Amino acid sequence: MEIKRDRYLQQIINYMWDGQVKVVTGIRRCGKSYLLNVLFRNYLLEQNVPTDCIISIELDLTKDIKYRDPLALAEYIRSRCEGKSEQFYLFVDEIQMSDEVKNPYNPDGRKITFYDALNDLRSLPNLDVYVTGSNSKMLSKDILTEFRGRSDEIRVHPLSFAEYYSAVGGDKEDAFEEYAFYGGMPLVQSRPNDTAKVNYLTSLFSEVYIKDIVERRKIAREDILGTLLDLLCSSVGSLTNPKKIADTLRSKTGENISQNTISAYISHLEDAFLFSEAKRYDVKGRKYFEYPYKYYCEDIGLRNARIGFRQQEMTHIMENIIYNELIIRGFTVDVGVVYANEKNASGSYSKTASEIDFIASAGGKKIYIQSAFALPDDAKAEQELRPFSIIGDSFPKIIVRKDIRKRWYDDNGVLNIGLIEFLLNETIIFE
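User: That's the sequence. What structure does it adopt?
Assistant: Structure tokens below.
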């Protein structure tokens, strides 16, 4: 089953021959290698690029193990491309397998890394360079700094619901229920039954993600990291901060765990693309709060697997899916806070805060979004709509709901839209 990743493929196409190293980043097993070695390769072949002009190096395979030496890699590619009239494309997969080697001209100096090799190859006028990696050891958020402004990032995410549905088809409601349970990790779709899917997702945490972080960051307390993961997964979309988490862990374990340790561990989880942080933003005051924040899991199936597929509250799952969808669409996403002066029982006025689930911003556009599983009565509708009435600007305001299918606008211009329609049609919110 071929799953379309047109959004990312188009990004790669847009970056072709811009003189930069194209760096495909993202959580492990989200489809980075497939994007480059299958989808983009097929595109090049359709453009009549000769097969011999596509150089593919797979550092995790024994046939290419010698090119883990960055000097050997650079020498080989130069021998293929230098002085030739043809245009070449270099794909280096599993770049984290590359070794560091001594500088032959200065053995006691700084070691040569794959960053040096790729920066060198970037200078060849007839070579376009693309790299992927499959763990956080090297291909993480900090890789772009290693190229010193000479790289483009293509950030790949697990399947959106639209990508998932394009592959599976059928009844949309049934497809969403499956997606909300197992998520969008591409290889899940090839597993033959529910047990195999559960085992695959569960093993990703224990055998891939946690091991990567422990090895890279030299984590001394893997048990604390695991407990932190459980807490974040069980409370997606809830306001929290390192102190609150440290206090919770202290009550669970009886150990004095510092806020700094929790902050560092959360940073490692974000660096490995497992979680994203949404900051709280004062809409009228136009400033960010230092704490608390919300954390969302990169894939809802991974979240569900980590907590044993318990706590299947659709309100939290739906909120996480909407957050991920906005990130995939290229928005910067914050949690909104608005204040209103309200009269209390004594007759005096005091400030009362109301929360907007998401403020999504991109390219000068801004959208306010509430996630509501259902609005069964006027009281619940008033609760969700109240923050919108306080904002006082004209940017679009949307309530994404699970309990409706046909969209409509209320008297205040707020768009009520069904969750599935929202996920399948990303242009509708600007119509």
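The chain has 15 helices and 15 strands.
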